Amino acid sequence: MSEVKIVDEKKLKDHGLKGIPFARFGGKIPKTGDWRTFKPVINKKKCIKCHTCWLLCPEAAIKIDKKGYPKIDYHVCKGCLICFKNCPVRAIEKKEDLHAEHLR
Amino acid sequence: MKDLMDGNTAAAWAVKLARVKCVPCFPITPQTELIETLAKWKSEGKWNGEFRTMESEHGVLAAALGAEMTGARTFTATSSQGLELMHEILPIVSGTRNPLVMANVSRGISAPITLWSDHNDFLSVRDCGWLMFCCETNQEVLDTIIMAYKISENKNVLLPSLVNMDGFIHSYTRMEVDIPDQKKIDKFLPKLNLKIKVDVDNPLSLGVPVMDEYSFFRVNLHKAQLNALHVIKKVQKEWAKFTKRKYDLVESYKLSDADVALVGMGANATVMKAAIDSLRNKGIRAGLLRLRVIRPLPKDEIYNMLKDIKKIAVIDQNISPGIGGIMFPEIKSCLYDSDAIVCNYVAGLGGKPISQQIYEKFALETLKTKKPFRKFVI
Description:
The structure holds 2 protein chains of 2 kinds.
Chain A lengths: L21 E2 L14 E5 L9 H5 L5 E3 L5 E3 L9 H5 L5 E5 L8
Antiparallel strand pairs in A: 2-5, 3-4
Chain B lengths: L1 E4 L1 H11 L4 E4 L6 H13 L5 E4 L3 H13 L5 E4 L1 H6 L4 H6 L5 E6 L13 H4 L7 E4 L3 H15 L8 E6 L8 E4 L3 H7 L16 E2 L7 H30 L6 E4 L6 E5 L3 H14 L4 E6 L1 E3 L3 H8 L4 E6 L10 H8 L6 E6 L9 H13 L5 E3 L2
Parallel strand pairs in B: 2-3, 4-5, 5-7, 6-7, 11-12, 11-14, 14-15, 15-16
Antiparallel strand pairs in B: 1-8, 6-13, 10-12
């Protein structure tokens, strides 16, 4: 049970900036890898390094490695499969990934 | 500088004087001329803010919210169905505490379709956490928009404002408007400096998901609205000092010795004032309470002005099917321990013209009645 406070209207306090619902992340990206049901996997043999997947990833979970290939951070990837659907050479495969909890 | 101008142009002047930096917009009758004027000024170089045309009203308010979040003073305007389409974003703007100002050129809501004015669109925003102002003249439209920026941007308020003018009656009718000096406005309204804003170098997320704190933030909105009452009074005093135009939370017209009071808002208040004068000439002591600030509702002021009057008629230019007029229960709640007979008229829906004689009839009917009633003008 959460704490319950009953406050009279006349005694409501001014909370200033604390009353604004905002958050600074301090550089940490929340780990959302365990939300995934399907996992996109990049086939480097087919990949033409066009970086379409890197551009379209809504979570910025795809980075580019030293050789220019895209690399997916599975701790962040939610499995939306936008990269899978938009890859022009179908170099991204869709694999079942029901047990991603260990990534948390 | 005095000029003859319609409400849309008066609002555009307010935007120019307030040095608004961004106006995302989508045209809708009867607001179209407002953004057309701004677009014209932009093309002529008379106003140099960012002018963006969007794909829908939902996009307009989302863009306006984004612009305001970065700390740029933003304005937009809409009407009727446009405001209804904005509804999803309306509570987000107040919830993230962005001091945006929007003008609503009121028009009856569909269906059936009407282009004429009533307050149903404007009043549908009353639970969204916005400050709400209802204007009577074009001069008041100009003054209120500039004052709304000062009120909204106050650090104890930080809430968006919605300024209402009546479609056609204000938007297309020319009245004498005094345009204040730009230098005086610059002194009155300093540059916007938001403490919490979206910034690439110092990233933050506004309107984050919460668990148990939800009620804390929502109650805070109520506290900010209560703070706004004091801030509105203060700003209106400051405004009166250099423009000589006095505004109050509610306007009282010949109320002090009245036997019967009409309560109304918007452009029709002018017709009501004429009716009051005419009744006074006939020896009937009538008065008018014009609602100017709808949110926060100035309960104490309304109570103090109406407490000695035994017969009150609330005239609603709006309808909430299932309860009647929208402002009637609000006025009645302000008078919780008064024994006055409070009646309700729903009149002027879809811009149906109500003449001075009919308002006189309302006052006489209310004066005679022994039981409260609710009547509709069809």
